[in-house]
Write a structure and sequence with these properties.
- This is ABC transporter ATP-binding protein.
- By secondary structure, the protein is an alpha/beta fold.
- It folds into two domains: about 240 residues, Rossmann fold (3-Layer(aba) Sandwich); about 110 residues, CBS-domain (Roll).
- The chain contains 17 helices and 17 strands.
- The strands form four sheets. Strands 6-7-8-3-9-10 form a six-stranded mixed β-sheet, with helices on both faces. A four-stranded antiparallel β-sheet has the order 2-1-4-5.
- Helix 3 packs parallel to helix 6, helix 4 packs across helix 6 and helix 15 runs antiparallel to helix 16.
- About 40% of the residues are buried.
- Bound molecules: adenosine-5'-triphosphate.
Length: about 425
C-alpha cells in the first residue's frame, strides 16, 4: 500500500563546516507540504546539497531543526530515519557488486520484509520506472546505460515506500533527451504516488518543469524566492531571481500548461461520405471559413475551405488540403505555438487517443489565450507579493540587523507559501 507524503519543515536550519568563518547554509526556514514537490535551485556552491542532506541527516545541522510530520528528526537515530526517506543522487549511487534486484532490495531487506514480499516489490519497482524486470533484474550496474542506472536509483529510493523522497541532481549525468524522459517519468510517478519530494538542481528549466513550488536559493542558501513556477516566471522577486530565471520567461511559462488544461476549441467537421450540400450548409452556418474532414475512425484528414466545397464535384477525400502536422491534447502551449507558427496558414488540428479529432487551434486564438494566462499569472504573483509583505515581520532594529537579516528573510519567504 502506498505511503503518501509527509510535510517537512526546516526551521532556522544552519550548517557551518568545521574551520569555516561563514556558514554554508544560514538559517533556512521553509515548509514543504505533504505530497508536494519542492525544487531547490540556485548557483553551484550555494548550499543546496548541504540543505538537502540535513533533512536525512547525512549532514548534521549546526543549529536549527527539521520536522517531518511535526516530529523533530534531529532526535531520531539517523539510520532509522534514513529508512523512511528515499534518496536518489546524480551518480545513481548503485553498489557495483550487487545486481539491480539486490540494489533495489537493500532498504526493504533492512526493514525486515519477507523474501517473497521483497521479490514482488523489486518487480513492481522495475515496472514502475519502465524497465523490464526479466531483462534487468539480474544485471550488474556496469551493464546499464546512465539513464537506466538513474531509473534503478529512483526505483531503489522508492522501494520501501517512503513518504519522503530526496533527490540530489538525480538526472544530472545523462543527455538532454534521456533527461527529458526521466523528468516525464518522475512527473507520471508523482501523479500516482504523491510523495513529498525535495529535488535539487541547478537547471532552472528542470525546476520549472518538476516543481509544484521552487525555492530559488542564493548565497548560503538564503531564500531569494519561494513560490510556484508561474509566480516566479511572472514576477521574479529581485534581480538575482530574474538573472537566474534567465531570458524567455514568457516562453518558459508556455511549458507549464497543456492544451487539455484549457479545453481545446472545436472547429466544424465533416465525415467522409456525407452529402456535399449538408457539409456546405454546416460550414456556412459556422463562424469560420474552414472545416476538418474526418476519416471513418474520426481522425482528421483534410482541411476544407469554402472555396474547396464550392468547386468540389467528386468525393470530399480529394477536396481541400491534407492535414499536415497535428498536436495532441497533451501538447504544451509551447508545442502548440510552434506547430501553428510553422503551419503556413497558422492553424493545426488537435487529436486525442488514437489520433481521433479533438479540436483545432489557431494562431490568433492561441496568442489571446497566452496573453490572458500571463496577465493572470502577473495578477496572482502581485497578490502573493502583497500577502508576503503584509506578513513580513516588523523591521529589525538597526543594531541587530547584521546578525539576523538572512534568518528574517528566510522566515518571511518560508511562511508565505
Ligand atoms: N564536507 C564539506 N566540508 C567543508 N565544506 C563543504 C563540505 N561540503 C560542502 N562544503 C561547502 O559548502 C558550500 C555548499 O556546498 P553544497 O555542495 O551544499 O552546494 P551546492 O549548492 O549543492 O553546489 P553544487 O550545485 O555545485 O552541487 C560550498 O562552499 C562547499 O565548498
Amino acid at each position: 500500500m502506498a505511503d503518501t507524503g509527509a510535510a517537512i519543515e526546516l526551521v532556522g536550519l544552519t550548517k557551518r563546516y568545521p574551520g569555516d568563518r561563514q556558514p554554508s547554509v544560514d538559517g533556512v526556514t521553509l515548509r514543504v507540504d505533504a505530497g508536494e514537490t519542492v525544487v531547490f535551485v540556485g548557483p553551484s556552491g550555494c548550499g543546496k546539497s548541504t540543505t538537502l542532506k540535513m533533512i536525512n541527516r547525512l549532514i548534521e545541522p549546526s543549529s536549527g531543526s527539521v520536522r517531518i510530520n511535526g516530529e523533530d528528526v534531529t532526535g531520531l537515530d539517523p539510520v532509522e530515519l534514513r529508512r523512511g526517506i528515499g534518496y536518489a543522487i546524480q551518480s545513481s549511487g548503485l553498489f557495483p557488486h550487487l545486481t539491480v534486484a539486490q540494489n533495489i532490495a537493500l532498504v526493504p531487506r533492512m526493514a525486515g520484509w519477507s523474501g517473497r514480499r521483497v521479490r514482488a516489490r523489486v518487480t513492481e519497482m522495475l515496472e514502475l520506472v519502465g524497465l523490464d524486470p526479466g531483462e534487468f533484474r539480474d544485471r550488474y550496474p556496469r551493464r546499464l546505460s546512465g539513464g537506466q542506472q538513474q531509473r534503478v536509483g529512483v526505483a531503489r529510493a522508492l522501494a520501501a515506500d517512503p513518504p519522503v523522497l530526496l533527490m540530489d541532481e538525480p538526472f544530472g549525468a545523462v543527455d538532454p533527451v534521456t533527461r527529458g524522459h526521466l523528468q516525464d517519468e518522475l512527473l507520471r510517478l508523482q501523479r500516482e504516488l504523491r510523495k513529498t519530494i525535495v529535488f535539487v538542481t541547478h537547471d532552472v528549466d528542470e525546476a520549472i518543469k518538476l516543481g509544484d513550488r521552487i525555492a530559488v536559493l542564493g548565497e548560503r542558501s538564503r531564500i531569494a524566492q519561494f513560490d510556484t513556477p508561474e509566480a516566479i516566471l511572472a514576477h521574479p522577486a529581485d534581480a538575482f531571481v530574474s538573472g537566474f530565471v534567465g531570458s524567455g520567461a514568457a516562453l518558459k511559462r508556455l511549458d507549464l500548461t497543456r492544451l487539455r488544461d484549457l479545453g481545446v476549441p472545436g472547429c466544424p467537421t465533416a465525415h467522409q461520405g456525407e452529402p456535399l450540400p449538408q457539409v456546405r450548409a454546416r460550414l456556412r452556418a459556422s463562424a469560420t471559413d474552414e472545416m476538418l474532414l474526418l476519416d471513418r475512425r474520426g481522425r482528421p484528414v483534410r482541411w476544407l475551405r469554402r472555396a474547396d466545397l464550392t468547386h468540389a464535384e467528386g468525393p470530399l477525400t480529394e477536396a481541400g488540403t491534407p492535414v499536415g502536422g497535428t498536436v495532441t491534447r497533451d501538447a504544451t502551449l509551447r508545442e502548440a505555438l510552434e506547430a501553428v507558427l510553422t503551419d503556413s496558414t497558422g492553424r493545426v488540428a488537435v487529436t486525442g487517443p488514437n489520433g481521433v479529432y479533438a479540436g483545432a487551434v489557431r494562431l490568433e486564438g492561441l496568442l489571446g489565450t497566452v496573453r490572458g494566462l500571463l496577465a493572470a499569472d502577473r495578477g496572482r504573483a502581485r497578490e502573493h507579493q502583497r500577502e508576503r509583505e503584509s506578513t513580513r515581520p516588523e523591521p529589525t532594529p538597526p543594531e541587530a540587523e547584521g546578525a539576523t537579516a538572512g534568518r528574517a528573510e528566510g522566515d518571511a519567504m518560508g511562511s508565505a507559501g
